[in-house]
Amino acid sequence: MADWTDATALIVIDVQMGFEDEERFGKRDNPTCETNISLLLDAWRAQGWPIVFVQHDSKEAGSPLAPGSPGHDFKPVVSGACDLHVNKSVHSAFFGEPNLNGWLRSHGIGTLAICGIQTNVCCETTARMASDIGYETLFVIDATHTFDLPIRGGVISADQLSRTTAAVLHGEFAQVVRTEELVG
């Protein structure tokens, strides 16, 4: 078993083909998200640090993220080996299988770097829970993206949602960082 006691685990959340469905999800922000995830994966692999892929198994009828659908597959950037593959059907990666918290604890990992899709949904939920159960959490804001959110009387832009998530998380639940801070 690898000695990862001082390592930071990279948690790559829901980077799946189904999120390419702009008709369903709407306009997205951060076109460099996938490039930044690739940079993070390369850096983690160079260090020999743990990588966790999280995949959403939607139970919603007709969801592009349902197991067996083409949208369930990871995007090409999420390739190569990972140290743990978690499947989940809720927002937090900590409620997936196999048990993420148990695996991290059994490997002595106390710090997480979170990236993926959607910034303000599964990534934010996982970061909040990570903080609450005692992990030092890095939220790699430029390696996440989200979508415009229609609301009664208008739309909250994806960019505004991402900035709000960063503001809410930073200092309270996580340290919000950029890819270059972790790979530079």
Characterise the protein shown here.
- The protein has helices at 22-25, 33-47, 100-106, 119-132, 158-169, 179-183; strands at 8-13, 51-56, 84-88, 111-117, 136-145, 149-151, 154-156, 175-177.
- With 184 residues, it is an alpha/beta fold.
- It has a single domain (8-183), classed as Rossmann fold (3-Layer(aba) Sandwich).
- The two termini are 28 Å apart.
- A six-stranded parallel beta sheet has the order 3-2-1-4-5-8, sandwiched between helices. It has a two-stranded antiparallel sheet with strand order 6-7.
- It is built from six helices and eight strands; from the N terminus they run βααββαβαβββαβα.
Q: Please estimate the helix content.
A: 25-40%
Shape: globular
SSE arrangement, N to C: EHHEEHEHEEEHEH
Q: Please give the CATH architecture.
A: 3-Layer(aba) Sandwich
CATH level-four homologous superfamily name: Isochorismatase-like
Q: What profile does the largest beta sheet have?
A: 6 strands, parallel
Count of spatially separate domains: 1
Q: Using the CA coordinates, give the radius of gyration.
A: 15 Å
Q: Under the CATH scheme, which class?
A: Alpha Beta
* Proportion of strand residues: 15-25%
Low-confidence stretches: none
Oligomer: single chain
| Terminus-to-terminus distance | 28 Å
Mean pLDDT figure: 96
Strands side by side in the biggest sheet: 3-2-1-4-5-8
- What CATH calls the topology is Rossmann fold
- Number-wise, the strands total 8
* Class inferred from helices and paired strands: alpha/beta
Query: Please, how many helices?
Result: 6
